Predict the 3D structure of the following.
Amino acid sequence: MSVFKERRIALLLLAVFLSAMLVWSPWREVDSKVEKSLGWPSQYTRGLRFGVDIIGGSRIILELEASHVTFEIAQDNVERIWWEEIVPKLEDNLYVSIRTISPPNPDTRLVTAEIGRPVTENLIQVIIGELGTVAENGIKKAVSTGTVNEVTSILQTRVDPTGLRGALFRSLGESLVLFEIAGLSPEEAETLLGKPGRLEIFFEGELLLRGEDIVSVYAPGPSTEREQTADLPFRLTDDGAARFSDAAAGKPNYPTVIYIDRPTDAIVVFDNEILREFPASFRYDPDKKMFKGTTAKEIEYFLHVSAIGTENDELSPQAREFLEEQAGLKLKVLLVGDFSLDTIENLSALYSVTTIPRLEQESAVEWIERACGVKSVINISPELAADLAAGKIARDLKITITRPSLDEAMDEARNLRVILSERLPVEISYESEASIEARLGAEFLREALIAGIVALMGVWVLVYLRYRHRLIGFAIIGTMICELVITLGAASVLGWTIGLPELGGLIIVIGTGVDHQIIISDEVLRGGLPGAKVASLRGRVSRAFAVIFVAVATTSAAMISLAWLGFGAMRGFALITLTGLLIAVFVTRPAYARILSAIVMRGQSKATSS
Amino acid sequence: MKFTWPQQRLSNRQLIAIPLALMIFLGVIAIVAFALGAFPMSRDFKGGSLMRVYGENLPASTIELDVESLLGGGVDVDPIENGLDIRADNALDDAGKLLVKEMFSDQFGVSEDAITIETMGPTITSIYSEQARNAMIGAFVAMSIIIFVAFRRRTSIGAILLAVGLDMLGVFGCMALFGIEFSLASVAGLLMLIGYAVDTNILLTTRVLKRVGGEPRDQVVDAMRTGLMMTGTTLIPLFTINLITTAPQLYQLTAVLIFGMIIDILNTWFLNAGIILRYAERQRRKEYYVSV
């Protein structure tokens, strides 16, 4: 018996153990939504993510409505007319962003752009006037992949910025996006989708710009002037640009603070302990009852949210006084820190209380900023301040972000773009809505358990009738369970959502698994045909694998084509089937062959000894 | 009395004719159902709305008429556990949903919370149909390539493709006969069926053409014993799930697979076996002539 063969069994056991731990994940918290619908088994499946069709919720399919329009530009210098005249006209009149799909071609004078809403030829023609014409059949309903990705990332930040709600967005191909969220009715989910974050930009303690003032935010790119720096260009409305120019003229290095959903109706109550964690550039101002930051150039800025500090076990007199005075003016209290139940109860009498839990590896300043809705603090560049002071009105601005590496700067720029793009780059409509009841969950689990047990017993009986050997039946069932556990473990590692299609995939994995074990068993146990060469045990196993490899290859081919060409909706099914098949053919089936050989050899040695 | 398998008794022609006749019959049913528009299509591909109304003693027939006159289209009403499922052909927009909810609260005293409305618009159904077609064609092509690489014999490749193709045709016939909806789940079932059907056909082809020794007919019977065992062990879980489940997607998936696997028994062990036996026996005669 070579070590290599034993290693297969060790590998199988290791894989089963690791997978079981991953599925159980005792170090994670139990998801309350899963617990509500599945009951106690949720304790042991903390590592899995369940789809709405198991734990209940809403499934909405969105259609992104954009048009690809091809223009014929009449005058010379296509490039200049396109960029400097037509694009701003379209953006101002249609109030959407324009993305160039195929750049201006000086020979054909054609250019194609994506406009984030349905348009008609007349509408476009009125806007661009003499500058060009819409090419024949130049308007198509289409959305580029880039736009689909952008919309899903904006919606993700809007609906579920922390990932705690378990919202899922997935492109279904072409212009459709699938959105699933647990525990909400379709109406509630729609409200969530439709509600953009409230963007505010503060400068020198004044609210200077709002979301409405930004026309569009363009894709960020590496800066041409400085290293490790990303540029994020955006355009303001005429009105917004005028206000900005007035305010920022001649104020180099002044900080602007960008907020999303600044909690204007809330007071941040923080634990005095965290003041000690602050760096020198960040402080609490007890007079203004606000937090205060200082930039590298020694210019101060405030976070415009009322805040008061106290001990964590008892409200300090100042805090009590301030909170009583503000009751009625403010409605909510946001808790930053670990407070005693007494304190929380006291506060609950006057306010609705929300705890802002600290995230992993979050600094005290980041924690405070998150509670206050601060997304970014940006300084006005000296060049811009000088330009504005010279009387220039800037509509096209850019935010420059410098970080230790270009990648980090680009990431930051992308995040900021999502934040600033309050409006989606395209219009969306609801193509399909479905609500799935949570009650399916528990019932479903019961069904699955019964089905599983009945199926296992049935398979065992059938195998026993065929081979008249009890151990072989148990070996087959054991291998089935191992395959199931390892596939679930893989799903946990890859973060796949387990919904009905995925459960279907698991059934298939186990089904084909048994098929192939039967092929192995038949090949190994068969007495050999009259006239057939008597092959060694090892030879018989490898003959079985010849059949299995072709079979797995064809099934995998079918699944790859389903995942590739097929609907996003069935992709999960295809992927889990594929993963299961691969695990089975490389881990569990070799181990089964080894176990079976051991059973057969034991039988043979018994037969010879008796 | 000695038990003999049909493969040992029947001629090759008979082996091929039996499944072929049945598949043609089922195929005709499927085609007629398609032509008459009677093929059961799910909302995934047809579009429309499903309104689920909860409440005791709702008058199904009155509701059917009322909703029909309100929406002006085909409406079906099915009773479910403490409520009704109402299916309409058109996808309701927001205004339409409001109308339906108002009607229910005015005329039947059903509160708005007791009604859920699911819709499927025309864009999705057309994209789904296109993707379903692509996936099925893609799967078939991918499967053919692998079989081609594995066997490289025109007869065996043709026989396998024929058997799998007829499996699908037969399943379409059964879906039309038994009213199993054509949905995303049943498409997944059909694709899986390709995988399963190919398994048994590969087993047959390998055992008969790649193994040395033994009579072809005995090899077929031997392979079939393994194959029936495989089908049996797969059918057990499929049947249990099909009988126990209340989730329509799993029901459709397993129903398609169950019909497909039963049909596949005929197509593999009769049709394909007949073709392969013909080929193998001819091959053997050729060898005989050469050696004499």
